[in-house]
Structures are given as C-alpha cells and as structure tokens.
Amino acid sequence: MINCEQASTICNKKQYQEASIPEQIKLGLHLMFCKACSSFSSKNRKLTILCNKADLQLLSEQEKIKMKETIERSS
Amino acid sequence: MTENKLNPDSWVDQYADYLFNYAVTRVSDAEIAKDLVQETFLAGLKSAKNFQGAAAERTWLIAILKRKVIDYYRKINSKKGKAEVRITYSNQSDSAGDWLEENVADPFSTLENDEIENEELGLAIQECISKLPKKQSAVFVMKTIRGLSTEDICNELGINPSNLWVMVHRARTNLMGCLNENWFKL
Question: Quick one: angle between helices A35-54 and A21-33, nearest 10?
Fold first, then answer.
C-alpha cells in the first residue's frame, strides 16, 4: 500500500507519462478509497489539459541572452 | 499605493516569455514576434524617463508591444496589394455560384472562440508561472513546456529525481491555486 505522498508523486509522474504500470496500478487502488487524492488527481489532470491547450511558446536561452546584450548596449 | 519602478535589468527574465506569447498569437510568426519583443524592450528603455509609475511594469510593456504589433501590420499593409482580400474561385462548373455560401461564417462553429480563449489561457498560465519561486518555475517550464526528460533536467540543475518531483509537485499545486483564482473565476 502507498501513502498519499507517494500517490501524489505517481500522479505527477503520470502527467508526463513517466509512471510505470505497477505504479499506476498502486495509484488506481489508492484513488479508489482516498477522496483527497482523487480530487488532487482530477485537478492535476485538468492542469495538464490546460497547459496542452494553451500551447505555450518560449524564447530559448540564447535568444534571451542576445536580448539582454542588446538592452545593455543601448542603456 | 506603492510606486511602480522600472528595472530594465530583469525585463528579459521576467517578461520576455509573456510578451513573446502575446506577440506570437498576434503575428503568428515566431521570428517576427521575437523582433517585436526586442523592439519593445528597446522602446521601453528609451522612454523609461516618461514612465510615471501609474501602471505596473508589465502592463506598461504590453502597451508598448501593442503599438509595435499595430505598426507591424501597418508596415506590411502599406506594401501595394497586400491589404486586398483575395477570394479563390473554384474552377469547377458544377460548384459555380456556391463560393459565396462556402465563405459564409458557420454560425455553429466555436473554433474562433476557442482560439481567443486559448490565447488568453496561455497568458494566464504564463502569468501564474512568473509568480512561482524561481526554482519551481525553472523545473516546471523545462518539464512541461520544453518537454525535457527527467534525466536531462537533473543533470542541468544538479538535483536528484526525487528533488525534481517535489519541485514539480509544488509548482503544480501553486499553479492550480493561481489558475483557480485567475482563470476559472473569470
């Protein structure tokens, strides 16, 4: 049996497809009787869906460094 | 009320991604968006002495970026012919006369709304990420947005996997709380 802390870690791993099958089974069992973890799990899933939907874009580190240099040169 | 002040040194770290997301949804080209963000920072620097502290730094920068986006569209539209709306006619005779119907907006489509909503959602998430403690946001961004593997992140930040998952957990719980406030309540 796993405790809630372990369950939440597995749940987080699951959001990135990194939970193993035995871990997922343990989590499933835990979620059957733990209300708090069930609610956390559903919120966690929602967050993943939102992040995917938003399709966030990032500037790369090099581009940021270049920007910083340009700003410094002109200040 | 506290006076708002400008810290150009931290602009890139704090606002570059936020501004970039804002720009990229409007010009739909990453290169151009990047240039616009850069121009925004330079313009902000130039007019920093006119900043009166009435608005938050980010609001002020977004206002500059908005002008830059408008300028960009003015510039490309001033080139001859670009501002025309072109409709491609079908050559097939059996569908002749149907083109108008095909071009009418579908009243039941929710796609347009989705796009606007996703753009706002992106900014809301970006805002919440920027509120996270530095380490948490670094880990979360690497994992979720850049999609790096656990191993790579651990090597780059010099932490072990269990540290990483603790950090991810904290970041995610903070984000859930923040989005609950800023997104679901709107």
Answer: 120
